[in-house]
User: Fold this.
Amino acid sequence: MTGFPAGAHRGGMTAIPDTALRLRDLRKEYRMGKQTVTALDGVTLDLPRGSFTAVMGPSGSGKSTLLHCAAGLDRPDSGTVELAGTPLGGLSERALTKLRRGRAGFVFQAFNLLPSLTAAQNVSLPLRLARRRPALAQVARALAAVGLAERARHRPAELSGGQQQRVAVARALVTSPDVLFADEPTGALDTKSSHQVMGLLRQLVDEHGQTVVMVTHDPVVAAWADRVVFLRDGRLAGQLDRPTPETVANRLAHLEDA
Amino acid sequence: MPTQTRMTAPTSAHPLSGLRSRAAALTGTALALVLGSALTSGTLLVIAAAAQASDAGENARYWATVVMVLLGTATTVACFVSVFVVASTFALNVALRRRELALLRLSGATPGQVRRSVLAEALVTGALAAALGAALGPITAPVLTGLIDRSGLVAGGFPVPYAVWPQAVSFGLGLAVALTGAWAASRRAGRISPLEALREASIDRKPMTRSRWTGGLAFLAIGLWQVAHAPSTSSDSALTDTTLVAACLITAVALLAPVIVPPLLRAACLPLARGRGANGMLARENAGAAVQRTAATAAPALVTVGLAAALAGALGTVSAAQLGDVRHLVRADAVVSAPGDGSVPEAAVDAAAAIDGATVSAQSRGEVYLSKPDGDERRAAIGIDARTWPRAIAVNILQGDLGGLSWPDTMAVAQQEAGDPAMSVGKAIPVRFPDGTTRRLEVVAVVRQVSEALPIPSVLLDRDLLRAHDQRARTEVAYVSGADVPEVRAAIAGTGARTGNAADYAEALHGTARDSNNVLLALVGGMSLAYTFIALANTLVMTTADRRREFAMLRMAGATRGQIVRLAAYEAAAAVLVGALLGITVALLTLRSLASALSENFVTISPVMPWALTAAATGACLAAAAATAALTATYTLGWPRQPRMPRS
Ligand SMILES: Nc1ncnc2c1ncn2[C@@H]1O[C@H](COP(=O)(O)OP(=O)(O)O)[C@@H](O)[C@H]1O
Ligand SMILES: [Mg+2]
Assistant:
């Protein structure tokens, strides 16, 4: 099976550090009128290259905010983010966008495909936006890798949820990002589709050394990762290596009780 | 290779695919631009022809002037309104596409790329529409000349030969209008955050941007300053000045619409919200939530009603002041005048004077040359009878005594000449007459310019003196006191002169200018009404189609189709009503300022608001909005499956 050249293996890049993502003391507050919500309260975390990390925690604990800040989609109030060795602080919106193109791929709960474009066009979009002529082979390979070769000309409305999410994964990976960010990628999928998507992510990590960080609230999904980090009230609240659905569920229950 | 997908060139793929899928939304922009370019192209062709013909003779030159003033104003208004339509269409287009554009940002598009994709859309639409409009020029040109011909303003037109440059210019102008209109929207699009693609609802969170505040307040300040410190103006420039003030205020209100419109709309819906029905409550709450939609629906009505009322009001105000002043200033019981630029026959003057108890004051018009340091200067002069003239019309003497005119070798001068110290009372200067004689005339009085409606020429002489030395002097009017109109009419029958009261005389003096202005009004009014319908239909088609899910939820909550259709129509009509009321406010302010600016030139000036026309324009906008909203809602509800997937 043809796969993706992951960021770590990309030619032309020298001195790629072993740490794909380095977060130092991230803080972020949201102000809604008079109320202030602390979404991140000093998070420090390192993700090694080729690791598969799940982020868990109660609803509102800051998981999405953490992901957005780490991926350069949002800016923390303080603290530093280093994505594949490049600090994101102080970059302009334009520079940040250009950096994201090559370094970060995204998959979200809502598949976020452009409804007017076909699956193949959706996958080719990041390349076109980066003004890289999308090699047809590259797009086709990406779609084949997620098992949707024969659906290339279909529009999102003609695809099932699982299929749409696999198109989204193909789109996220077509630029060979250093880190793939996924926020509840299975949140809108049934068990079978969910299984397919997780298998796909696992395979990317195992066979191509892709770095993946994924937010989820489902212990079964989290168990596909190498490591689970827990978040509560915007703070890290422990981690779990080589998780199983049972150990994760157990930890989660304690977390919510405390 | 398992699949081959045909793809367009890499960089152009996203804007163009977007263009294709939103063809419907861009139709309004395109129509507005086609209309504007066709008008501009036709106008420029006519103006080019008029400029050529003006070398040909007096009549053609007059024609050319009329054409340039009329069509020039109409084109300026067309450009203003079409920038407006394009701007509001694109603003709405971007607002509706926020999620899609955020998704592009999320997929790696830089703010600049998003901005350019919006501008690219404007460029493509603008180029196509402007080209079509420019090509239509040779068809619109004869329509325009026909309109002016039919009004009877000028006798006989001229053919409009084909020329390339008017079409080239109007194409460029159309493109410029499209890009100007889309500029602000593209800036807004560039500021969309990729995170917006991840949020659930797409309610307008911050409809007021800093540039909107800045622009809106700046235009408001300029507009209100103009209203407060209305610079003195003449009736000739009244239209242009009014257009300027109204355009400033309208732009200000449109920019501030997201702040101004929702509270007004909530107030307007209050009576219904108190009722038991759901429509009032829903319309009221929706108005607050969907600020962009409401503002975009109100804006076209604001422009049309505001501009139409302000322009018609300006013409009405000037016209009423002219008629009012002539009636106010003319004290004579009957006025004898000659049709056109003719002269009242001396037989008619004598016949009127022969009526028992009647006094006649005849007034002749000719010209003299004043000897000035830089050489002789030509001046218009009237010859009057100083004893009877002040009884015929109200005269205001600034200095001296008009009675002195009955002595030999004297003259009076009007206010506008009194600035020259050599022309003050008691001084004498050499005056040359058309027959070649030169006499030193002493200034005995300075006469005030009371009203533009009855202007006093530079030099006033004894009528016999003027007639003795200017063979071409014509008797423009004979004022009769002490005899009524039927008596005078009977006495002068058969002389070719006509008789009427002061009001008839006013009509004879100023009716032509008013007719010419009414052609302009019809042109501008018809055009901006057409723009309003385009803009309204466009806005409502775009926004109503976007409300599919909301309508579906209402259906689930138990609303009948009829209730939803009525709700959509009601909401649109309420927004249009608020827009129209704001337009009326703008017009009232503008007219008040115009009246005070003209107050130095007229005695009886007061703002005249054209209520009937305003009501008709408002009614037309309301009907158009309600009908379009109801139709699109019916269409949206009746289509079982949308071809494109709604937002996830
Ligand atoms: N755009 C925002 N504006 C205001 N508050 C926000 C925003 N995004 C997140 N929050 C708040 O920050 C906290 C963390 O949110 P989030 O990171 O989305 O949590 P999670 O993904 O773990 O459910 C929550 O209390 C949430 O209400
Ligand atoms: Mg979340």
